Amino acid sequence: MYCGIDVGGTSIKAGLVDDGGHIVAYKSIPVEIRHDDFPRYLAKTMAEAVGELLDGCHLSFSDLPYVGAGFPGPVDNKKGLFLFAPNMPIKEAPIRAYFLEYCPLPLRMGNDANCAALGEFRAGTGKDYNSLVLLTLGTGVGTGIILDGKMWTGCNQAGAEGGHISLNIGGLVCGCGRRGCLEAYASASGLIRLTIDKMLTYKDSLLWKAAENSLDKVTGKTVFQAVRLGDERAREVLDEYLTYLGEGLLNIINLLQPDVIVLGGGISNADDDLFLEPLREKIANRDLAKYSLPKTKVVKATLGNDAGLIGAAFLDA
Known about the structure:
Elements: E1 2-7, E2 11-17, E3 23-30, H1 38-56, E4 67-71, E5 75-76, E6 81-84, E7 91-93, H2 95-102, E8 107-111, H3 112-123, E9 132-137, E10 141-147, E11 150-151, H4 182-186, H5 188-201, H6 207-210, H7 222-228, H8 232-256, E12 260-264, H9 276-283, E13 297-300, H10 307-313
Parallel strand pairs: 1-4, 4-8, 9-12, 12-13
Antiparallel strand pairs: 1-2, 2-3, 5-6, 6-7, 9-10, 10-11
Helix pairs in contact: 1-2, 3-10, 5-8, 7-8, 8-9
């Protein structure tokens, strides 16, 4: 039995996970960002979640080898530090030391995107492969890399940031401060921006109908809904979005040639004929190893929001 924790900006999700990657017990606890001494409060809440899970299953700390946790930002697992998070009052916080004050188990730490990749590798779409790159298409583009069965994080545990591959040196400003990053174009936020730009240009587009005639109601689903209505402007938006995403995937394929690229996040839930199939067509036989076999597969994630928790549980397995 293993224990994984997925630390988010609004809640901590903890679960007990069996050897097959199945969650056998689950608990979610809200997080109060404005809490005094937030790092210690965060560690204490994590420890309390573990204790409550064990109590609920009539288990003890001795039944677990360690606790694994994924954090929404870079960590230093060697020193036990949560280095930074854009939406939390965190800077080089000694989370492991605080955690050990409330729980006697070792704490293994990882970035949440890397944990999600490990989860898909151990128990999801990637379990039959040796190497995997996960892209989570959400507000940003989170990525995680598994090579030869091991998580790859670089020399400083801050690697695998594929969302910040630049597609256009003079392009859109990304949240990281650079211009033209894949995240600026291929995230849900990027798709929403493309959609709104098209709506402002074409007032007769059915994109307006799909968004209930309000720019404030545009979501990552809007363009797919309008394409189903037969709107040509929506199809143009979708084609542009998939072109950007496809170029990003080709960069990753040329660099790593992984067995599989796994796509997660809300955008990936779109129907295959509108999303996955045309995306595959855009990258087909365009990588530098186009005459080599086997080819990198592009598939959808299967674990959904549980991937990070499951991956965290296997951080030291």
